Amino acid sequence: MAISTVNSPELTQEQVQKILVKPLEQASIFLAAGPRIFDTNGSAIRIPKLGAPTSPAWHGQNELITEQDPTFDEVLLLPDTMKSVKVITRFSNELARQSVVALDTALQDRLVTDVASTLDTAFLGSTGDGITTPQGIFAWADTQEIAVTTALDLDILLDAWGLALAANVNTASLQWFLRPNDFTALRKVKDTAGQYLLQPDPTADGVFRLWGSKVNISNRVPAGNAALVDMAQVAVARDMAPSVKVLTERYADYDQQALRVIARYDAQPLNAEAVIKITGLV
Predict the structure, then answer these.
(1) Is 58 inside a domain boundary?
(2) Contact 176/213 with Cβ under 8 angstroms?
(3) Residue 146 belongs to a domain
């Protein structure tokens, strides 16, 4: 039998399509949720804010009016000690010339996405000291908290909503931050007739809401945690958005190029009472 493309595929020339298939990745959650972003030239940002309210009193004719001294505070963002997220990737000029895709563009997209993911993981996390690395939502001080030892249910969410109302939070800008498994468990809750309690809005494709507030679903939220946040009361300082620099001379001795991506951000609540954390979920 003569050899052919059927029994000798190793000898055939294959077609390589000039596209690059990217993995399915989570889009930025925190920055897309609408915090107040302040751009800076690298220096720290101080945002003054009023402290506790004064106590005006009722006074009659010819009575001495009580003096009240208001207090002031501030939110400090991007201190000089705050680090940046940085990454460098090198590649040979031969690979750049022979690649079936635009290698520099592909690498740039990859690095920018990874840097943005690193920032999001920090902002939605429970780590960071606010000095060298940004603090996440669950590391912010003086926030309200609901500590539980059970699975997330609608009553717990309603309790968080109640704390927001008691703190005079603007409910129009409240947003939930939940893990996928917690939200899926809520969607499975049924009434006595076997009907799901949470029904999607047929007029809003892909938008999830709980008690009227938008739901942001992310596996970057630490396990056992959820949060209800007034994002209008969250400040983000941005020194540098993910910026890309092509390095053509640094590795010239090796006939290489490199891409460098740098970003520097910080985040803090303007009013910590507008952040309600739910912890201890199982």
Answers:
(1) no
(2) yes
(3) yes
Per-residue CA distances from 220 to 24, 42, 119, 173, 188 (Å): 15, 27, 11, 21, 22
25 confidence band (pLDDT: 50, 70, 90) = confident
Q: Are 40 and 239 in contact (CB under 8 A)?
A: yes
Look up residue 231 and give its two tokens: 């994002």
- Pairing state between β 225-230 and 174-178: antiparallel
Strand duo 213-217 + 209-210: pairing: antiparallel
Question: Residue 238 in 3-state DSSP?
Answer: strand
The residue range of the domain holding 266 is: 31-50+72-190+200-279
Q: What is the pTM of this model?
A: 0.87
pLDDT classification of 11: cutoffs 50, 70, 90: low
Number of structural domains the chain divides into: 1
Pairwise CA distance, residues 122 & 136, whole Å: 5
In a domain, 78, yes or no: yes
Return the CATH number at 211.
Answer: 3.30.2400.10
Q: Is residue 255 part of a domain?
A: yes
Residues facing 230 on adjacent strands? 174
